[in-house]
């Protein structure tokens, strides 16, 4: 629910090293939208939605994400090209530069929090150079009441300065942009990029360390919803696999669309207070809830608008990663507490551009662990002429760029929770059928929705030979029938009409799985290793 305004509290930023700034504290979304337009940093669409251009960066820059290596992190973080170490002294020097840059400027400050479960609440202060970045923080984090703000004590601080450019040779960064987590000082320092996703993913990454290390809680890059009978469904998936779309269901209440915790008390809670959805090819017919959420208070990023204020969602001339952020109350059918209980089904979503994985299959616990650690989807070719070859993409735990610990740590927690609760795990291919990208077609959204609904209704039943077929390459159990889905669609091989090419492509993908899994083999037990494809081509 939207909190009341105005906010009467005033604050100082001097203890952050930000001096003589004009502080605009806890402005309402309307005020921030007006400030953005007045500064020439955004436009208003026909629906009243604010539209901004994030500048040079229209997505995250994973090679410019760092974690300060110190006493807290040195022995726990899985260091490498995902979690890149940053020296404490270098952080302090860069921090001083950023705060000096923000001094004497007009600064937008917001107090908010993450984690809807009161037992896991994390208070956050967000300090922004731009008003629309602060409006994004309003949309995406949980919103305290004015009563809660009176004694608000921020535990973590996000300092966001898109206009500050680092000097890589001096500052220890790779280039002029950076996103750095400091777990000792509890600061996320972001500069040189206007992409708002860095703000939310900074806090997500912090929680992916804090919750498992200190709170015995599994953090998950997933969406979640709850049915009328109180059964919670969890949707894991990388960007573009349908995580937000499939969890936004008119028949089920949305808990959240991207980041959740699974507690030792067996509850699921949303980290956030909003949604950050891709809007490429968005339509009212395909995704009515998301389409309807795009109204005053939402922020569209990097979309093309005509002279009448109409948005062309098919136009990707700026980026394919066009986005919208909106507070969760823009969705009508939400779980007011943002907490669910009784997890019954987990869906692993993958957009298989090779077109060889079943559109839905049931996983054993060992297969679930294997696919969770693998985190497979596929990237399709860009717009270059003649380039049609898909590329396998693996992101451990369906969120490797945000996971500071070794993936096996999260997988072990998931396996335990699966066994303790008896939850069913399903692998859902939202990608291609009838051939790979460039030959086949994307599986119809209505079929994927029907498969999800069949699982939630219990229509697919328990595993048996009569009801399921074991895939000869991947070893997963694919249902023979599903209400609302043509039988031919359920068998990926049958959709190809070319067995030789199908198996050749399927074996090619299993080899990619095996090659990717090599880096986890020393951490994975025999049960997990048995969960992978057992047949492969030489």
From TrEMBL:
InterPro entries for this protein: PEP_carboxykinase_ATP, PEP_carboxykinase_C, PEP_carboxykinase_N
Annotated binding of substrate, by residue: 60, 195, 201, 323
Cofactor binding comment, as recorded: Binds 1 Mn(2+) ion per subunit.
Domain of life: Bacteria
Keywords: ATP-binding, Cytoplasm, Decarboxylase, Gluconeogenesis, Lyase, Manganese, Metal-binding, Nucleotide-binding
Entry EC number(s): 4.1.1.49
Binding residue positions for Mn(2+): 201, 221, 258
Compartments, record wording: Cytoplasm
NCBIfam families, alphabetized: pckA, PRK09344.1-2, PRK09344.1-3
Pathway annotation: Carbohydrate biosynthesis; gluconeogenesis
Pfam families in the cross-refs: PEPCK_ATP
Protein name: Phosphoenolpyruvate carboxykinase (ATP)
Cofactor: Mn(2+)
Primary localization class, coarse: cytoplasm
Record carries keyword ATP-binding: yes
Keyword Zinc-finger: no
Ranges that cross the membrane: none
Organism this protein belongs to: Aquimarina rubra
Function: Involved in the gluconeogenesis. Catalyzes the conversion of oxaloacetate (OAA) to phosphoenolpyruvate (PEP) through direct phosphoryl transfer between the nucleoside triphosphate and OAA.
Single GO MF annotation: phosphoenolpyruvate carboxykinase (ATP) activity
Reactions mediated catalytically: oxaloacetate + ATP = phosphoenolpyruvate + ADP + CO2
């Amino acid at each position: 629910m939207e909190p009341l305004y105005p906010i009467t509290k005033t604050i100082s930023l001097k203890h952050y090293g930000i001096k003589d700034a004009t502080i605009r504290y806890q402005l309402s979304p309307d005020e921030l939208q007006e400030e953005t337009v007045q500064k020439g940093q955004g436009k208003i669409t026909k629906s009243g939605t604010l539209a901004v251009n994030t500048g040079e960066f229209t997505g995250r820059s994973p090679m410019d994400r760092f974690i300060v290596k110190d006493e807290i992190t040195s022995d726990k973080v899985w260091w490498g090209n995902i979690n890149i170490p940053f020296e404490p002294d270098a952080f302090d020097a860069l921090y001083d530069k950023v705060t000096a840059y923000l001094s004497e400027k007009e600064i937008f400050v917001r107090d908010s929090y993450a984690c809807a479960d009161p037992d896991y609440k994390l208070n956050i202060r967000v300090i922004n150079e731009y008003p629309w970045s602060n409006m994004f923080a309003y949309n995406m984090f949980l919103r305290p009441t004015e009563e809660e703000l009176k004694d608000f004590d921020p535990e973590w601080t996000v300092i966001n300065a898109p206009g500050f450019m680092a000097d890589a040779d001096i500052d220890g960064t790779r280039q002029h942009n950076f996103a750095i987590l400091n777990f000792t000082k509890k600061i996320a320092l972001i500069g040189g990029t206007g992409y708002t996703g860095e703000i939310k993913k900074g806090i997500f990454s912090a929680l992916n360390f804090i919750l498992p290390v200190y709170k015995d809680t599994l953090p998950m890059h997933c969406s979640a919803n709850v049915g009328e009978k109180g059964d919670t469904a969890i949707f894991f998936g990388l960007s573009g696999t349908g995580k937000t779309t499939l969890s936004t269901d008119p028949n089920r209440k949305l808990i959240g669309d991207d980041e959740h915790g699974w507690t030792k008390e067996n509850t699921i809670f949303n980290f956030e207070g909003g949604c950050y959805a891709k809007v490429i090819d968005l339509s009212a017919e395909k995704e009515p809830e998301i389409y309807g959420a795009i109204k005053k208070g939402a922020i569209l990023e990097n979309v093309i608008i005509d002279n009448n204020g109409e948005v062309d969602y098919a136009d990707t001339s700026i980026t394919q990663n066009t986005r919208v952020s909106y507070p969760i109350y823009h969705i009508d059918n939400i779980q007011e507490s943002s907490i669910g209980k009784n997890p019954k089904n987990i869906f692993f979503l993958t957009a298989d551009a090779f077109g060889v994985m079943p559109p839905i299959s049931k996983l054993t616990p060992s297969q679930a662990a294997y696919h969770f650690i693998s985190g497979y989807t596929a990237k399709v070719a860009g717009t270059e002429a003649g380039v049609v070859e898909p590329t396998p993409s693996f992101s451990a735990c369906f969120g490797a760029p945000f996971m500071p610990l070794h993936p096996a740590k999260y997988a072990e927690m998931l396996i335990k929770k699966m066994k303790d609760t008896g939850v069913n795990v399903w692998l859902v291919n939202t990608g291609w059928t009838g051939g790979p990208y460039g030959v086949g077609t994307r599986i119809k959204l209505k079929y994927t929705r029907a498969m999800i609904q069949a699982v939630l209704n219990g229509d697919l039943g328990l595993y048996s030979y009569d009801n399921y077929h074991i895939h000869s390459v991947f070893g997963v159990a694919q249902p023979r029938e599903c209400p609302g889905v043509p039988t031919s669609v359920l068998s990926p091989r049958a959709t190809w009409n070319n067995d030789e090419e199908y198996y050749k492509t399927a074996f090619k993908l299993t080899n990619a799985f095996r090659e990717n899994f090599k880096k986890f083999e020393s951490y994975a037990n025999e049960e997990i290793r048995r969960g992978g494809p057992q047949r492969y081509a030489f």
